[in-house]
Batch of 2 targets.
Target 1
Amino acid sequence: MLMKYLSEYRNPALVEKLLKEIFAVTTRSWTLMEICGGQTHSLIKNGIPALLPEKINLVHGPGCPVCVTNISIIDEAVYLSRLTDMIFCSYGDMLRVPGSKESLLEAKASGADIRILYSPLEAVQLAKENPDKQVVFFAVGFETTAPANALSVVQAANLNLANFSILASHVLVPPAMEAILGDPDNKIDGFLAAGHVCTIMGLGEYFPIAEKYKCPIVVTGFEPVDLLQGILMTVIQLENGTFFVENQYARSVHPEGNVLAKHTLSKVFDIKDRVWRGIGNIPLSGFELKDAFSSFNARVKFDIPLINLPENTECISGEIMKGLKKPMDCPNFGTKCKPEFPIGAPMVSSEGACAAYYHYAWNPQLV
Amino acid sequence: MRITAQLDETFRYAQVNFGGILKDVNLYMTPEAQIGDYVLVHVGVAISLIDEEEAHKVFQYLVEMGEVEELNTPN
Amino acid sequence: MNLQCPMPTFDFDVITVGHGSGGLLTHNLLKSGVFNLLSNPWLDQQHDGAIFEINGKVAFSADSYVISPLFFPGGNIGDLAINGTVNDLAMCGAKAKYLSLSFIIEEGLPINLFWDVLYSIKLAAEKAGVFIVTGDTKVVEKGKGDLLFINTSGIGEVHPNAEIHHQRIFADDVILISGNIAAHGIAIMSVREGLTFESSIISDTQPLNDCVIALLDHFGSDVKFLRDATRGGVASVLNEVVEMTSLGIILNQSDIPLEEEVSSACEMLGFDPLYVANEGVFITIVSKNKANDILQFLKVFPAAENAAIVGAMQLDFPKKVILKSSIGGSRLVNYLPGEQLPRIC
């Protein structure tokens, strides 16, 4: 994170001016969706929805990789973590998500060697330092995180490590956008595309989507000034009836993305169909390790029993992530479903929409 | 930003300063990054170089709207 | 860990179960270690308990310390053990006087580490102006502990001006924080496995009794509430307050004292500083008309030089803590379920 370029993007005077502009240009009701957990978090944490004109309705897409990871994958993770001589490594976020029997945090409390790491490259380091143990990294994420996960596999291959592998659960944004826009109940008018995802992948994938669904897409950053400018740019397009792809986050996003990162991704991963928790199968929406790297694929390396349990039908996370409902529309929100005892993932992940509202929304009617 | 170690391309690291905190960051995906550049880091890997010119444009946009004369733009 | 006081020569490198079983080994450890170093009229008696007189109302507090790692930037478990109980008593409006000190040592703890902790305890007790008058030492087998656990309990004299009851808190009362927040939790994070980063952030562990007692001397009943913001941070204390009083709280984000480096670390790790533990920061709720005077008074003390007025009690939104962000939006500050875990993206 660039500290120098943070405070400027939180400048209250700038925020005020952008809001004034938004109020000035908005004449009709519009529904905008952002599709990045970090943006969801930032919007609610900064209280932005309440500052916007009432005509602008912000809904939150499936931008939280933790939330869309199938419960069976959590079970796979827990199973692996309990194997002897195993060091199971994960990003902190994944630890609290409940599997069908327990979460990784509960497994850790009962003795599994589970380590929270900041980077998958640290897992490679761990594998190098612990040759007598198996090290598995829980490689979850969108396109922003996938290159680092891929790099860890490349590093491990270069080091000829026999004891390193990843349990992969990667998801891709553009297919999710198509699934949402293609839904007959779709109400989204404009999209804020995820700034960090596009830093990696560039803008190319979004042109056909904007064209096909006549939906403006503005690649947006995370800070209040970024988000408001992105919203402003989207609303201006909607008011004018245009549907271009625009780049608000140009200080980080180049049209072609990060070529080296994309190259690493295509070297290590194939694109396959993937089931998104709460939404269902989205074709060609996830990364899987290529056969050439199967020795680093925990699913190939270890015999993980297939666990296929049905989802809790009380959780409406699918409708929330498609922007059809808001977290507060769920009858269980804040009552039967709370972060301490979540029914679904969006309430337990720090970037899930339900958790964001539960933690930060000070007046459910206003946000 | 200080380059501390160099093994092969996949292991090119630097020390990155996050407002006073120093952390080792992998630069494999930003080979053009040099000491003094600002990078965007995600889970221990630099994913892009911050384009300072573009960074200023956000403020330019509002100057053009004639609304930010009194603001101090970052140097 | 390079301390001035030389360790006496022990004929062992690590502490064993024999050192805690009450026999000669125990006697040697305590005599050359604990008693000598912490010597005072009560400990020198080597009695089963300490006998002393005390004036007026008494406050009594206890706490256990199980932190890992034992040593961290800015201090060690010994500092926490003394300052923690001294501060708990201060939050009751009491000047801490006498402490008990109990160790549960895991077999295999190197004696030099134990000595370093003990020496820190001596220094912390001296700085806080308290005596350690009684205690206990036990050793458990390897694997049954986590190197070292410490329990301290303390007795203090309640200040005659102290009227610290949450029932005295009303709407418009002002909330102050005594110093920069979140440093302790981040200092610990910086040495925990898997999250290593270089920083100059050190724990803020320190005794708060001097400035609190002085505050009560001068402002007495205008001080309605005191609580140190340890585990769970500022947010947890404030949520307890709204729960107890059924009032609401409004906080101004831009007024909350927070060092830039700590803020950066929190950003990087995905932590909210309001929930990060402190060991040398307290929150006080005071009468509105005395708030500015109290602020200026506190800032003279080194322990509170970064004190700030951060918000107020309000009638709106009862039982809720609301934070006004620096850009003008508002949000809730809830209790945090479980511990904060570093985020992915």
Note: Chain A has three domains: 19-55+176-247, 71-172+257-301, 317-360.
Target 2
Amino acid sequence: MSERKIIDARGSFCPGPLMELIAALKLLQVGDEVEILSTDQGTAKDVPEWCAKVGHETVESGEKDGHWYVVVRKAK
Amino acid sequence: MSNKVLIVGGGLAGTIIANGLCRHIGAELRKGDVSITMLGTTDTHMYQPGLLYVPFGKIRERELFRPQRKVLDKRVIFHVDPASNIDVDNKKVTCQSGAVHEYDYLVIATGSRLMPQNIPGMEEGAHWLYDLDGARKMRTALDEFEGGKIVVNVNAPHKCPVAPLEITFMLKEYLEGKGLWDKSEITYTYPIGRLHALEPVAEWAKPAMDESGIKYETFFNTKEVDPKAKSISSEEGVTLDYDLLVTIPPHAGAEVITDSGLGDGGWVPTHKTKLLREGSTDVFVCGDTTNIPISKAGSTAHFEADTVIDNLASLLTEGRWARDYDGKVFCFVETGMKTGTYVWFDYKTPPNPGAPSQMIHWFKLAYNRLYWLSARGLL
């Protein structure tokens, strides 16, 4: 597993956190982790929902310092 | 000793910067204190947003092109010699011809490219309009289309985020015009849980599609295309049949970026307001090439380029930083063949598109001509 990649999508309206995550996962290996930072509260719901649909693993999610974060492990 | 500014990439971002810089540092260029060199991949400049109109026969192909030499200020030294290696440690760029260019300031504006080959079956089974060859083939496919199921499929990452919606609504009106809508069906697919990345645009698009009878499938990330069965499947487990598949293929950055070890996927890690490569003070990155989580669009390239021009000019003449990029993006949105709207936002201001109107559509058509003033750094 490589070092956890961080995508700072705070303040990103377009393409937005989930689109950034989808694009980033295509460049990672199975088992790699990526952490997405977002100022959009919907990210904390949208990302785990999408991961469940596709089969990637949501490692953790929450709120800290005024933004939301979700850690995803590429599972396939 | 003169300062050498080297621009890698002759697309919109690189061209605006080259021309804009000439206007700001005319005295230094005259005295020979500064030189500006551009390394391009082609001698022709293409107005990429015009490709949208090609499949519908709404633009003549030659309107899309100008000789790059004529678009560029005469003071810019221009080579058609694609970069093969960018060495930021030793401040030099090697070209495919073997020529080596040193620099004091480097601008990387190598753009993005289509990667349909990354999805099994897509090259064989799909049409797209994001390059001229694809747009021509799509025009032929539409000419021959006699009705049936059309899937408009969007993949991440991709540039020009509003184009997929424009294509969808224009397709519907095109089919109505040919008397084929009654025996046709359009399904629009999008990777996330709404119809567009921008929430207000998605909120506008959903009722507009409902009213138009356009179907949609969200959370659709393409797994594969089966050209024989004429079906497209998603990672989420949905399969759609099609008679005509129109796709926005996934994109990647330029090969020279990955080959030079400057960024995964061809995207260069870039400071979101300084537009400097992370870890560099003399390497600017502009347009699609950055990894900034912002729209990959001509408008983004334009506003970023204005910032780079101001900072480069200020650094070269006064040795100081001028200003930061605020994340501004402005995009026209064609909402059909006769109406349009627009959307703008920056890092702090959320988008708020207005009601579509014929006047905005006309302005977009006018911009199709005004683009050449943008590229020349005048607009």
Note: The longest strand of chain A covers residues 57-64.
